[in-house]
Amino acid sequence: MNTAWMKSLKLYTITQRGYIVSEGDMMVKFTAKLISIITVEEALNSEVSGTVRVRASHDDRELDPNQNVAILNIEGTTSYQAYFVDPDTDIEKIKADLEKYGAVLNHNSEEIIKKYVERMNNEGCQGD
């Protein structure tokens, strides 16, 4: 019996916490879950202020207290990611950025952010 093809298979397990583990190369994917969409002012007065400041610096963006920011937690860790939410927010860019950190965006979180951006566009507003 030829079993050479079996060597190329990788076994994947999705754990209860949303990790994808490849038993072949021990690749782990974390799940990013939306915690809240808040104003920059609220974020700067919270434990995620450093995360928001780093994102602003990374995006070369001034901190506007009325700007909205999505706060994501990388489940199973104490890591947070912040993404500014504008009418032109591209969810695919957020997902690609999270991929750099070995994380995938939770489906419900993705839908909430999409609907929030859609509402911003429908209302023609800059935020809440």
Automatic annotation (TrEMBL):
Family matches, as Pfam families: DUF749
Name this polypeptide is given: Conserved hypothetical archaeal protein
InterPro entries for this protein: DUF749, MTH1880
Domain of life: Archaea
